[in-house]
Design brief:
Helix 1 runs antiparallel to helix 2. It is built from two helices and no strands. Helices cover about 75% and strands about 0% of the residues. The chain binds zinc ion. The site of zinc ion has 6 residues, from helix 1 and helix 2.
């Protein structure tokens, strides 16, 4: 019998990839927002995109942590 903790969990790996992507997205949108702000252009749309990216990141973190709590996988 195989212990799930001894194997690489594909689901965890997928969630981890999603999380990393969402972190990069927040970083990119933050830079885009800063650029818009510096040029004193309309910030609202850029701000909304940044907020949405932030929410996506939180959701990805939550999904990742929930999976670990429920599944108990280590890698
Ligand atoms: Zn897992």
């Amino acid at each position: 019998m195989t212990n799930p903790a001894d194997e690489r969990c594909p689901e965890r790996s997928a969630l981890s990839t999603e999380l990393a992507k969402s972190v990069r997205e927040v970083y990119m949108q933050k830079r885009a927002y800063d650029a818009v702000k510096a040029k004193e252009q309309d910030k609202v749309e850029s701000w909304n995109v940044l907020q949405a990216a932030g929410h996506s990141q939180l959701a990805a973190e939550q999904a990742f942590n929930d999976h670990i709590t429920e599944h108990g996988c280590k890698t």
